[in-house]
Amino acid sequence: MMIVMKEGATEDQVAAVIERVQAAGAQAHISKGELVTVIGAIGDREHVANLGLEGAPGVDHLVPILKPYKLASEQYKRGERTVVEVDGRKIGGDHFATIAGPCTVESREVILDTARAVKDAGGQLLRGGAYKPRTSPYSFQGLGDAGLPLLAEAKAETGLPIVTELMDVRDLDAVVGVADVIQLGARNMQNYTLLTEVGRTGVPVLLKRGLSATLEELLMAAEYVLKEGNPSVLLCERGVRAFEPSYRFALDLMAVPVLRELTHLPVIVDPSHAAGKRSLVEPLSLAAAAAGADGIIVEVHPQPEEAICDGPQQLYADRFAEYAEQVERAAAVAGKVLSNV
Ligand code: PEP
Ligand code: MN
User: Fold this and answer.
1) Sheet holding 2-5: strands in order across?
2) In terms of Cα–Cα distance, which of 248, 339, 237 is closest to 293?
3) What is the atom index within ligand 1 of the atom nearest the CA of 132?
């Protein structure tokens, strides 16, 4: 339920409503707009239904949120878009971000060389997984803890904020020490304890869509993070399982405009993991940017042939600037600009 306060509602009236909401066993989430304050009363249906706040001092009207996800719903922000800001780089609204880097932090040299290329190409954030979810337990599992200082070093040199994956709640403190954005991978989209813990950190989250997850399931997963008081969630479309074997996953670009209708949260597209193949990455990126995505997360490597994982889909670092320029143009078609500091 959304409680829309009157334009001139006083602080005391807002506080009184919050108290009533909490006394009824629901959570109160406050969203201060330019003109009015809206209080989201979130909780079990019975708690929220009997609040009886119609006509209370300062209350203008009540609006039920019909979707099962509440804080993530478009309705909750009444048409306003969430802009997530990471070290001065804005993502969402009119702002587009290019997030790029190797699949995994393989070595100091690879992460530093890639970071320099991303920086020179005007990229906004650096990606790289220290902990890797691998289909085979015999494949390289990432450098783990040893990879984190290398990301920190790349940030210290280039100033690029870091996006890195957290797979296990036991690594939370270590990852929070380095990450500017915590990535939750497709395979963990419905790991509800992880979502809750990451929500409690307040660190921005890049939440990847599960391999067979519906958009409603993605938004319900985002709700777990938002519910903990962390408003900074970036949704990521990375391709879903389909029947065509000539590419890795089917990039669901329809998700971009559909999510725009369902939620105020920014939507990032990962063309690399969907494609599995370098030649497909640029056309998919252009299509995503033109469709109105708020950013791209893409894999790039100085020598993809030698990459430990996902080599065939990684872009060449020395050609990355050209690619980034094309993507920027496509984003401009959708009315978005890169936010550089
Ligand atoms: C990744 O981005 O490094 C990754 C493993 O992606 P996904 O979780 O989408 O498979
Ligand atoms: Mn990868």
Assistant:
1) 27-32, 37-42, 2-5, 59-63
2) 237
3) 5
pLDDT tens digits along 88-123: 999 999 999 999 999 999 999 999 999 999 999 999
Residue whose CA is at the smallest distance from ligand 1 atom 9: 186
Ligand 1 binding pocket, CB closer than 6 Å? 103, 129, 133, 165, 185-187, 208, 238, 270, 273
Q: What amino acid occupies position 76?
A: Y
Residue 131 has pLDDT above 80, yes or no: yes
- Cross-strand bridge partners of residue 236: 208, 268
Separation of CA 97 from chain center: 11
Whether the CB-CB separation of 192 and 224 falls below 8 Å is answered with yes
The neighbouring-strand residues paired with 95 are: 92, 337
Query: Rounded distance, CA 149 to CA 17, Å?
Result: 46
pTM for this prediction: 0.96
Q: Whose CA is nearest to atom 4 of ligand 1?
A: 185
The model's pLDDT over 31-63, given as tens digits with 9 standing for 90+, comes to 888 889 999 999 877 777 778 898 999 999 999
Closest CA to 296 of 326, 260, 341: 326
The CA–CA distances, whole Å, from 61 to 7, 48, 271 equal 11, 14, 43
d(CA 159, CA 319): 21
**Where does the chain have alpha helices with state H?**
11-23, 45-49, 108-120, 148-158, 172-176, 192-201, 215-227, 255-262, 271-275, 278-290, 320-333
- CB neighbourhood size of 19 (10 A): 11
